[in-house]
Amino acid sequence: MPSMTERAPVTSPMTSPMILANGIHKRFGTNEVLKGVSLTLAKGEVVAVIGPSGSGKSTFLRCLNHLETIDAGRIVIEGDVLADNDASGHAHYVADTEVRRICARMGMVFQHFNLFPHLTVLQNVIEAPITVKGIKREVILPKAEELLKKVGLFDKCDAYPSRLSGGQKQRVAIARALAMEPDIMLFDEPTSALDPELTGEVLRTMRQLAEERMTMLVVTHEMGFAREVASRVVFMDGGELIESRPAAEFFAHPEHPRTRAFLESML
Amino acid sequence: MDYILSILGPLAEGSLVTLKLFFITLALAVPLGLALALIRISRFTVASQAVNGYIWLMRGTPLMLQLLFIYFALPFVPVIGVRLPDFPAAIVAFALNYAAYFAEIFRAGIQSIDRGQYEGAKVLGFSYSQTMRRIVLPQVVKRILPPMSNETITLVKDTSLIYVLALNDLLRAARGIVQRDFTITPFIVAAGFYLLMTLVLTWFFQRLEKRHAVYD
After folding, report:
1. pLDDT value for B148
2. In this complex, do B116 and A160 lie within 8 Å of one another by their Cβ atoms?
3. Sign of dihedral through CA atoms A132, A135, A136, A142?
4. N or C: which end of chain A has fewer CB within 10 A?
5. CB pairs under 8 A between A and B
6. Per-residue pLDDT for B216 more than 60?
7. CA gyration radius for chain B?
């Protein structure tokens, strides 16, 4: 994939992690959904976030790319500060243009795809590069076609999303995110809205991405994916990060009793 | 039959006035309505409330009253008082009134778009205006076609109100002939004209709906 090798070098020092989240607090009204979550992602790492529903794992993911704003904590993306605490301990974000610039390095895939229904598959993929980055249509077109071939949907180029299965929609959503050449990919329960027989094709695409050394943070219920593809597994419960360990270790010897209880309930 | 043919000319002339008012009103009220809707849903509370009040005023009083006010009373209002000729006065009244209705249609359409569309656009780096132009509004168009069709058909018939400004629209032309010739035939022919116009509109909107149905 030329898109992977030709990517502009990161300006920040190579030592800075791709994602650094420190002491993230987030409340909806009186309900504190994140109680000081910290997580660091190195380049090329694939981290699976698991945990019961309502544990705050999706909210945490959405905080990282500014779909939710945090109340307290520090978020640094590839060495650039997105938000940080002031003296009184409240998080402040950098200027709007800077927020957009930083968040543009993260692609995101949603549980419900969020494809643009009025655009064809190909148009979904090329819309952002053309509108947001100002790339010429003839420049992005071959790249978009390549991405669609990669996710196995080149033959659906001219179809509208309503004509696709859930698995196909999600693969288009992945291609659409990759067209913006992100350094990091965030996945928010990418297979939760899919019929069981359709999850495989999406997971295969994600595994392929992981093999290309894409930095990935994946909120998922797919234990198989977490075990086989993730380099590290993070367990969240009740708005806290309970355990974070290499995948094999995590499943073989879960340390925390809550992790053990959760894993047992999944079997 | 000969009689009908003889009155077609004057009625067609009246229709031209009707159509002119119709098209100019649409051309002004649609963009104005969209602008009002965008202000109405914006975070700027003062502007949003002002638009809210404007819509209440325009929908809460008769169009006929607004027409009479702009033509007869506006010249006496301090500061903004201007004396408009009859046809421009009608255009202003119609555009201001219909913009209020269109604003509510646009607002309903915009607010019916799933939040996921905004999030999908945001994570791809779209700004608010890019999201509106490229993602939200193209989908809104499809959803508001049925109420827009309703409203434009109403507009065709509302144009007949301009008789109060002594403008020779289709209905006034017909009434003139009725009074001159003591026959109601011109009314029936005028009804035919209106039906023809609304038929064309209905057909036009059905075609638009069909075209936008490709991505269903």
Report:
1. 96
2. no
3. negative
4. C
5. 60
6. yes
7. 21
